[in-house]
Design a protein that fits this description.
alpha/beta, Signal recognition particle alu RNA binding heterodimer, srp9/1, four-stranded mixed β-sheet, about 25% helix
Length: about 140
Amino acid sequence: MSLAIQITFDANDPASLADFWAAALGYIIQPPPPGFESWDDWARKMEIPEENWNDARALVDPEGQGPRLFFQRVPEGKQAKNRVHLDVNAGGGPDAEHQDRVVAVGNHVDQLVELGAKKVEVFEIRGDYWVVMQDPEGNEFCVQ
């Protein structure tokens, strides 16, 4: 039996980082609990001080397939290279023609750069093609 997972990101600005990853992956902000129009309404009801409303955000796959992503505020900045990273599969998969994958990856990389990501390095090895990037807070990920 497999278990569901959540991927958690430490962040300086959970709302902004969640917005970036929502756009990068086609995810959505997790809807508020039943009975609440918004997370702000929920936070007011829970008597959470407004200065803490950006302490966390969660994203979900609208199709219900991918893991939940959780962004939590931490006081320290990123210190070193990630030991785990996400691979964003924008190239159409292994059955797509190589040049079509390169174009699709390039288009997605361009969109992510416009959203605040940084392009770090391009790799093309034995027919595989991917781009190493950093999100707006410096977390490494690949687009393939």
